[in-house]
Amino acid sequence: MSSSALLSALALLPALSWAGEYRLTVDEVTIDTGDFRKQGIGYNGASPGPVLRFREGEDVTIHVTNNLDEPTSVHWHGLILPYQMDGVPGLSYPGIAPGETFTYRFPITQSGTYWFHSHSGFQEPDGAYGAIIIEPNGREPFRYDREYVVQLTDKHPHSGDRIMRNLKTSADYYNRQQQTVGDFWRDTREQGLAATLKDRLMWGDMRMMSSDIEDVQGFTGLINGKGPEQNWTGLFKPGERVRLRLINSSAMTYFDVRLPGLKMTVVQADGNNVQPVTVDELRIGVAETYDVIVQPKEDRAYTVFAESMGRSGFARGTLAPREGMLGEIPELRPAPLLTMADMGMAHAGMDHGSMSHGDMADMDDSGINHDDMAGMDHGSMSQGRAAELPADPFYAEGSGLVPQAYNDGRFLSYADLRAQKPLYEERKPTREIELRLTGNMERYTWSINGIKESDAEPIRLQYGERVRFKFVNETMMTHPMHLHGMWSILDVGAGQWNPVKHVISVAPGTTVYMETEVDAPGKWAFHCHLSYHAAAGMFRTVIVEGGPEGGDS
Amino acid sequence: MNRILNGLAAALLLSATTAAGAASGAGGQPGDPQQVTRTIEVVMHDNYFEPEQLSFAAGETVRLKVRNEGALVHEFNIGTAAMHEAHQGQMQMMVDHGVIRGDHLNRELMKMDMGGGHSMAHDHANSLLLEPGQEAELVWKFDHADQLEFACNVPGHYQAGMMGGIDVE
After folding, report:
1. Are A525 and A453 in contact (CB under 8 A)?
2. Is residue A3 part of a domain?
3. What ipTM does this complex have?
4. Domain boundaries, position A358
5. pLDDT digit string, tens, across residues A230-267
6. Minimal CA separation from B110 to chain A, in Å
7. Looking at the complex, does the CB of residue B147 fall below 8 Å from at least one CB of chain A?
8. Which of A15, A97, B47, B101 has the fewest CB atoms inside 10 Å of its own CB, making it the most exposed?
9. Which domains does chain B have, with CATH numbers?
């Protein structure tokens, strides 16, 4: 047989493929954080559910059986698949009724770290989440000796339904860091009565408080289901490269993650390889994933410490050469306070209560300029210190939220992210769609372009176009925007090297662009991944028209 | 601009020091092409080497033929772990100053005369800095293997595992 004949014969064989079959049950479970026990929802009898390990090129079949007495759903977060398999009730399918089994079937066309969760009600905050690892077909552009999933969440003693009711009744129900009468007198002493009064009146007009960074405080941070006292531990041999697959499965909480004494080399963001960048600390938005490689060389325990962005809680685990070893647990750093920059003073036509553009002009006349903002910034983080920081273009200039590494080292910015390998050919977008992120904190309404999902028309995209989305955050909260079914190419100004993500975090007072190759027909969800913001209406249905058969709904 | 030049000068002083040390510290020294006993091919990918382990006899002089088949700039550098770590600081500076630009090098900046005979040419005897598609050779005489590694010190690459071990028997 000649070699060309052999090649032809090989070509006739079916491509090497895998077909895996998996089963998940959706169950009522007891969740024990070490701080409290509560009833919740899990998969295969536990929360978090199992780690599903797929392989690129595999055809998966997943049977999901609903053992709850209410409908459920499973969404495969970040996976590219037919929209009927995406698991969003009302868009992909009707959901899974109590006692029923739904069988998902789809090909795995990607690799990396992802996760899955319920897209029904508040089942995800109640515990219905798990991790997905997809092995690549070829070798990875990095090396490691062992790996761990580090899945973070913000477990709250209250059920999701109860939290939403409380937020609707009083938006500051869970804000324990409100400024007190004592703060008022302290600020009056330091800044004078007039300045302090003006500050408080301005925040009042904004229907916001400078401590509005985390809507829902009072949670226990978990790593892989374990509270700080329960101390999730991953073992290593000194000198090994350890890959940590960081996943933020929180309902509401951004975490600042570090391992004191170790540098982290970020090699993946949202499942896609990035050119490696070595940092001391990183901020992981809700629903994002980052894969990092650490190389602990000493024979000692290293703490995995994840402080919430608003410093109201933390998760803690340990990397150690042997079980039972403990690393030092750092103190929580002081809570940041939002500044005038986070109010988005640059925006006209803000949707903050009664505040009009005229009012802002008035404020400018009364002498509030950028220099005076230092005076507004009466928190732990002084303007002077912030001014020394390298500017992070993904925060408003002078923002109280600009992160700073615990050791004054390097803190990961979106601006550091570069795709390891471009996924799409670079081309000009066919059009731009502006999405203003809007809301009224005190009424706890959240919306896009001032309209909540229940009153909104879907966004209609044409198959084959490349759309540029312009996010303008007119609120004072950070919103992790998640488009289902298609990639979000974050514009960091690097052209074809722009990183490819599935969640784009938009800080207060900033405008962020992403582009999407519209290559997946059907009906998709596009929403803020903060559970209570999505439920309040910061959500859009996206309909992709045209394209291959099966796309029409 | 002055500040940038000063930064570059500082980087150069650092690299000059290390390059001088390299000849004695990198498990050997630049070899005489006449003494080469064999040629070994090393391929750079994004971001790993192939092969990832090299073995030599003590005193052997070899020609290392290195080809960058990746889409990013990579370095091939012979040294100890400590030497690589020191060199990584300089490579970070080359990135910060726009000399290494992800998928290409700013050759104009590399050629620029910095005074005192220095440039940003990265022409250390124990290393090669290659753009995608480039190929180059390095002749090295291996004496000993005290924690010797070959590595790419473009920021993040070594940490992500773009390195390999060297045995000298």
Report:
1. no
2. no
3. 0.84
4. 176-210+335-405
5. 999 999 999 999 999 999 999 999 999 999 999 999 99
6. 22
7. no
8. A15
9. 2-168 (2.60.40.420)
